[in-house]
Structures are given as structure tokens and as C-alpha cells.
């Protein structure tokens, strides 16, 4: 692929707004050629491999990323602005995912069913074929690995499309994977909406695994519906954290801060709606503001930095606009001093300060929309029923958390929450061995864990008749 800067897309460092690389968008012809090569690799090579062979190749890919941990983390940091510890942590998580799915490729996937004489009946699973993995900009390497590790483990070939803002770590991974995987088993295309649409529409794509906004997910599902093409959608969220007066308030306050400021709020599972019991409202919000206000936005490589930048200037402007609208609607800006303090000026980057908006009208965008920034909207309750109603006052259903020392109350909320990830007296726990998914407009399909096999394979029922005495 020609890397002419005149035709290539500029890739920015969001911490400075400067160009760090140019990478051309893949043309329609390039998408077609990439998918044809992926098809040939699937039919001629990868679908014919044994589970042990796939295990060994995925383990080798994990070892490669592990050995090049520093370079992958530095590349991810320069492209996303993540603080150093977070960038390294995400590379480490990606390695664990590759290791886990290497092992999972060896797990039994079928069943033998009772049958009469001369008949063998069993069920098994077969690969889907060519998988298009369309990835977001908030965790470029990690979320791509969630998809490609599972798809490859079960015998599919994969074409990855990273977000146009953050292609660099995936570009490197695909290049380096050529040394441990057969040709075209893992490949990539680059660009924006047009390239994603081409992947969805192309008859050579057998499945689309998409992570991104709910709006974009609807279009992916619509485009794939015509060909009855299976889709996995991990979409947006507007997740509640419900805190009762009898909770461990210090632990809850620290969890709330992590929930809305982690990765500078650029997480689909972010806990961005605090639903707090009325008697402790002022005390608790004050403590959350103290902790959040102590966080330091700063240069990604500075050891003192807690928060990196947002990914784009447009994301920064939208965040400020939504906070200003909330203030104009009567909400109280607890942190910073006013809506005018949302922007954090540094090096020309896209930095924001943590924001807490109290008494937000439930009609406001700050309460209803996924902002993808460190903005916490606060509401109060006086009864369990009111708390649950506020928690469910959203079309999303990705995650939810409840904090209380009353174990029966905790169990009631755990059972009642309409969310795919539920945490009680904790927040944010994720492991490669545990499958996750959303409910409602947060999508469907499973990532990670044993249930990922359900998306990247198809179940079959098989009857084999044997001749009498044969």
C-alpha cells in the first residue's frame, strides 16, 4: 500500500494535536482484495488447522506481543494519550486474552447424543468463516484482541478495521503477526465510515463483530440484515452507580471516581450516573468531588498524570457543550467551579477536567446521552423503588453497580438490574475468562470467556448412519 502523505489520513497525538503518522485509507478495491485473500486463507489454510496448531500459533502471537510490550505500549500511548501505567496495563491484558483463547481452542465444543443401533448422533461447532472486526478508538489494541483472539481460536480468519483516529497499534500487530501466522489469516483495512460500510456490505464477509456507538451499531445491523449476516454488537452505555447510606462510603466514593474518570471517561461501561440516597447526598458528593478534583490531567508520559486527553477536538467541544446545557437547565456544577472550567489547557491537546453535575434534570443530555468523557451526573432517591427507577432511566443496559452492606438489598438489586455487567460493592472488574455483553441498546453477542464461541462458530447437528455390521 502506497503511503503517500498527500493521500493519507493524518493520525494525531491527542495530547498535543500534532500529527504522529500518516496512514492511507483502504480503497474499495483494497477492501475487496483483502477479503478475497482472507477467504482463500480460510478455505485453504486456517479452517484446515487442528486445534493444537491454532493453539500454538496464538500462543506464539501472545509471546510476540509480550516480548514487544514496551513498543506496543509506547505506540498506543502516542496514538491515544493514555498515561503510561494504563497503556502498559492494556497491553498486558491483551496478552492474557491471547493466552486464554489459545487455551480455549483446545476445549471440547460438541456433544454425543443417544442413538439407536447403527446410528451415531452428535453436535459440533464450525467456524463462521471470514470475520470483520470493527474496533473503537478508546481501547484500540485491547478490544481488537478481544475479537481477533476468539475468532482465530475457533478457526476463522479476521480482517480488522481500527478506528480512523487510532490505527497504529493494530497496524503494528498485523504486521508483526505475519511472522507467526499463515499469510492473510489476520489482516487489516483502514479508514472511516465508508470502509466499515464496505466490510458490512461485502459478500465475502461472513460475520461482523462491532464495538462502538449505538447509532453506528444500528447501521451495522441494518446493513448485515439483508444477507442474514450474523452480527455481534458491543455498544454504548450510560451506567448507574447506586449508593445507599449504609454502604462503605469511602470505598464507594473511590469506586465512583474510577467509574467516571477511568480512561478519561472514554469507556462504554463508565459509571456516569450517580444515584445516591438523599440523607448522604451532600456528604457523599463532596467526597467524590474531593477525590476527583485531586486527579491531574497531564502529559501522558508524566508520572504524575492521572487523566490523559480525549481522543479528538470534537469530543472536547461536545463535552463542554453538554455541560453548559446542563448548567443552563438548572443543574449545579460541583466540579469544576463552573461549566467554563471543563477545558484543561495544555500543549494544544484535547484535555478536560473531571466534571460533576448535581441535580441534573432527567431530560438533559448530561443524564441521557453517553458523553465519553469524565462527566458524572447526580440524582438522589429516598426509596429502593425510586433508586431502581432512576438506575433504569436509560435505553442502555451495559453495566450497573450497587453499594450497600445490607446483603438482602444487594441481592434484590443484583436480580433486578437490567444490565449485562453487574457489580455489587465493587466496580469495573473484568477478566478474560468471563464472558460479557450488554442488554437493551447496549447490544448483543458475547465477548471473552467460554461464551465467545457462540458468536464465532455455528452449531450443527450430525447424524451418521452405519451399515449393519459395518
TrEMBL record:
<dbReference type="InterPro" id="IPR016161">
    <property type="entry name" value="Ald_DH/histidinol_DH"/>
</dbReference>
<dbReference type="InterPro" id="IPR029510">
    <property type="entry name" value="Ald_DH_CS_GLU"/>
</dbReference>
<dbReference type="GO" id="GO:0016620">
    <property type="term" value="F:oxidoreductase activity, acting on the aldehyde or oxo group of donors, NAD or NADP as acceptor"/>
</dbReference>
<dbReference type="InterPro" id="IPR016162">
    <property type="entry name" value="Ald_DH_N"/>
</dbReference>
<comment type="similarity">
    <text>Belongs to the aldehyde dehydrogenase family.</text>
</comment>
<keyword id="KW-0560">Oxidoreductase</keyword>
<protein>
    <submittedName>
        <fullName>Aldehyde dehydrogenase family protein</fullName>
    </submittedName>
</protein>
<dbReference type="InterPro" id="IPR016163">
    <property type="entry name" value="Ald_DH_C"/>
</dbReference>
<dbReference type="InterPro" id="IPR015590">
    <property type="entry name" value="Aldehyde_DH_dom"/>
</dbReference>
<feature type="domain" description="Aldehyde dehydrogenase">
    <location>
        <begin position="4"/>
        <end position="462"/>
    </location>
</feature>
<feature type="active site">
    <location>
        <position position="234"/>
    </location>
</feature>
<dbReference type="Pfam" id="PF00171">
    <property type="entry name" value="Aldedh"/>
</dbReference>
